[in-house]
């Protein structure tokens, strides 16, 4: 008896999976057969996906909402598709792309068309991922050019920093004592000391 599965993936814990879950429940996929990962699609090292893969057997059916929910790495999507359809001999239906339904066209032409569509969509998914990274990098560069600072604000030097620094440099006190005197961590004091030396 073939089982029906659903796979859901969101990129982070604060993203909402409702749209994917609703689509699978409308198809009467049992909750116990819906596997969900909350992590990036850059590879297939995902716990729920691995558990699902172990459970699925020949002639089972897997529903996914869209190809980018399966993954975002072009080569790995193709590799997983081959594993699922050729090695495990299960059927896959991509709900947002009716052409990607392996139940149809079991002949050579059907498989050929399905593979072509998959390759195009996988390429688009990975290309979009690259574009997002590029847009993020460009946005950060533009923000830096406008003077926007990233990360925690620098801790200002206390009034006694210069005096404490000189005592530490003259080996009158230890690094730990110098940091404590300035109410800083050892790392912060040392970093500011190096910065002061590089400026001189």
3D structure, described in words:
The chain has 8 helices and 4 strands, in the order βαβαβααβαααα. It has 200 residues and is of the alpha/beta class. It has 2 domains: 4-132, Resolvase, N-terminal catalytic domain (Rossmann fold, 3-Layer(aba) Sandwich); 161-199. A 4-stranded parallel β-sheet has the order 2-1-3-4, sandwiched between helices. Helix 7 (175-181) packs across helix 8. The longest helix is centred in the middle third of the chain and has 38 residues, at 108-145. It is elongated and about 85 Å long. The termini are far apart. The mean pLDDT is 84.
Write a brief caption for the model:
By secondary structure, this protein is α/β, with parallel strands linked by helices. 52% of the residues lie in helices and 10% in strands. The chain is elongated, with a radius of gyration of 27 Å.
CATH topology of the largest domain: Rossmann fold
Would you list the SSEs in sequence order as H and E? EHEHEHHEHHHH
* Ends distance: 78 Å
Number of domains: 2
SS class: alpha/beta
- State the shape: elongated
Q: What is the topological layout?
A:
Elements: E1 4-10, H1 18-26, E2 34-38, H2 47-55, E3 61-64, H3 67-70, H4 74-87, E4 91-94, H5 108-145, H6 161-169, H7 175-181, H8 186-199
Parallel strand pairs: 1-2, 1-3, 3-4
Helix pairs in contact: 4-5, 6-7, 7-8
């Amino acid at each position: 008896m073939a089982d029906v599965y659903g796979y859901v993936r969101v990129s982070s814990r604060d993203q909402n999976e409702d749209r994917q879950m609703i689509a699978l429940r409308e198809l009467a996929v049992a909750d116990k057969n819906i596997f969900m990962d909350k992590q990036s699609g850059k590879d297939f090292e995902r716990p729920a996906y691995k558990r699902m893969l172990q459970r699925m057997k020949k002639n089972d059916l897997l529903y996914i909402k869209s190809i980018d929910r399966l993954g975002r790495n072009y080569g790995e999507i193709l590799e997983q598709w081959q594993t699922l359809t050729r090695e495990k001999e299960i059927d896959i239906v991509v709900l947002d792309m009716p052409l990607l339904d392996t139940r149809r066209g079991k002949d050579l032409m059907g498989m050929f068309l399905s593979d072509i569509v998959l390759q195009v969509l996988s390429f688009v998914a990975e290309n979009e991922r690259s574009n997002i990274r590029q847009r993020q990098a460009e946005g950060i560069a533009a923000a830096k050019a406008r003077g926007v600072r990233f990360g925690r604000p620098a801790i200002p030097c206390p009034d006694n920093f210069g005096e404490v620094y000189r005592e530490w440099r003259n080996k009158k006190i230890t690094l730990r004592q110098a940091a404590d005197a300035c109410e800083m961590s050892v790392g912060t004091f040392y970093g500011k000391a190096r910065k002061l030396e590089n400026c001189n």
